[in-house]
Amino acid sequence: MPDIIDAAIAHPHLKTLVAAVKAAGLVDTLKSPGPFTVFAPLDSAFEKLPPGTVETLLQNIPQLSRILTYHVVPGLWRESRFQERMTLISVEGSPLSVQSQDHFEVKNAAVVAADIELENGIVHCIDTVLLMG
Question: How is 46-97 classified by DSSP, letter by letter?
Fold first, then answer.
């Protein structure tokens, strides 16, 4: 079974996320045993950001790292574990609200593919990049 990084590299719609993770130096972290739950923004999620945002983030590694680790939660969080509304603490350290009552979403992002089980965690693909604040 692939790990989070290998699965992301193989996924046709996670190319921007892979490039960002590599630029931030987080590959080894996401290849470690974990387990992690990753809310992975699709390429289309990055395209929703204002023009130039991705390029600017790729030049500001500390900020890029904070944003990427905000998308990661320690432990295995399958959709079935979420109650109506819960708050988890991201690896970055900020709270992340998740709900699965009417539809599965994290903060302001819809989960478009849930419970992708991998060697070192679970990935949920989302339609919006999560920003802190």
Answer: HHTSPTTHHHHHHH-HHHHHHHHHHTEEES---GGG--SEEEEE-TTSSEEE
